[in-house]
Amino acid sequence: METTRxxxxxxxxxxxxxxxxxxxxxxxxxxxxxxxxxxxxxxxLLRVGTAADGSVEHGSLVHGDRPSVLPEPGCExxxxxxxxxxxxxxxxxxxxxxxxxxxxxxxxxxxxxGSGLLSCTWPGRMERxxxxxxxxxxxxxAWDLADHLDGGGWASLTLPVDGSTREFRYRExxxxxxxxxxxxxxxxxxxxxxxxxxxxxxxxxxxDVAARYA
Length: 214
Description:
- By secondary structure, the protein is of the alpha+beta class.
- The protein has one domain (22-212).
- It is 18% helix and 31% strand.
- The protein contains four helices and eleven strands, in the order H-E-E-E-E-E-E-H-H-E-E-E-E-E-H.
- It has helices spanning 22-26, 106-119, 131-146, 209-212, and strands at residues 33-35, 43-50, 56-64, 80-87, 92-93, 100-101, 155-161, 164-173, 176-182, 187-194, 203-205.
- The protein has a seven-stranded antiparallel β-sheet. A two-stranded antiparallel ribbon has the order 1-11. It has a two-stranded antiparallel ribbon with strand order 5-6.
- It is globular, with a radius of gyration of 16 Å.
- 38% of the residues are buried.
- Residues 1-22 are annotated as: Disordered.
């Protein structure tokens, strides 16, 4: 798969509860994407991920309720959609000049979205002590699924991006949904959510991420 592996970029899995500063997002040299103006609910910053040289390589914006690990009391009916923006980069030299880093890809965006959904998921009947084993198994499965976007685990979904229709790869599970695609502005898009249908979503460039997202 043409993508950076789990250690590259660093911090790939989304961690609900972290509160990045707007400056973390403003350091990025690529445009951020969120839901378009048809969405009128709350918007929040979630997280940025950096490459080995410290440059911002991806990040996530929350729409709706803040994602929370289930089944915390009062969180069962949370409705949210998280949009992941990943800088599209070709194969490049590593920061220390000793090797090459693989290209980022739509598959990488799919894995970021899948791992993000897993980070706010907890099967209700599972003992707490078993969750880490479950999470590792599911994370490996999410990686395999992301590596085969043309496989049977995915369907096609056409959604508007900056006013034009784009095709995404889409899949649902009992824990929520994940989708991934690309844009004409040098970034790949991933998204995940629960309690909010993916079929009515649209995406657009965020003109001022610090002003629009708390």
